[in-house]
Amino acid sequence: MALFQEELSGVATQLWSYPMRRSRFLLGKLLAGVSLVLGQSLLALGVAVVIFDLPFGAEGWAGLLVALTLAAIAFNGLYLAAAITITDFQTFMVGSNVSILVLVFSAPSMYTVDQMPVVLQWIAMVNPLTYAINGMRDAALFGFADAWVNLLVLAVIAVVTYAVAGRALLNRARNL
Predict the structure, then answer these.
(1) Contact, 150 vs 71, CB < 8 A?
(2) Quick check: pTM over 0.85?
(3) Which letter does DSSP use for residue 18 in this model?
(4) Long-range contacts of range 27-35, CB-CB < 8 Å, 24 or more positions apart?
(5) Cβ proximity of 84 and 26 under 8 Å
(6) Is 83:7 a contact under the CB 8 Å cutoff?
(7) Pick from 169, 11, 171, 170: which is nearest to 77 by CA?
(8) What percent of the chain has pLDDT over 70?
């Protein structure tokens, strides 16, 4: 949403009037978005530690934090690429609100993939949230050895979405 606010307020024109590399712009968006997600998540984990007896060892906590960070980077990149590619604010808002519901309810956040209807199992296979949830759970409970495939998928999603965002950013900056 910050991207649309920058354009509506004229800040985007000012930003791109100076010689700024798109990598620095994307890095700024990445740091802001991921920091917010990690801060909120760490606060929630802190509350969970106080309330519940979490059975994680040092490797489990490290794996959980790595998986959480990769998930935050991947989803930040996914929505940033969508925001840069879509030029209409309302279209982006409707698309992001609908996609969040589809992602959450077609991922194994409330039930396992095996318990889902067949159609949802197919959607879950291409749903990035499936890999984030499985990666965090597997890393926290079983360690990196069981979570590496999910973490690799999240890393690939992050690289691809930031490449798409960078490419779309060039096109969008030309149109300001």
Answers:
(1) no
(2) no
(3) S
(4) 29/2, 29/3, 29/76, 29/80, 30/73, 30/76, 30/77, 30/80, 30/162, 32/2, 33/72, 33/76, 33/80, 34/69, 34/72, 34/73, 34/76
(5) no
(6) no
(7) 169
(8) 85
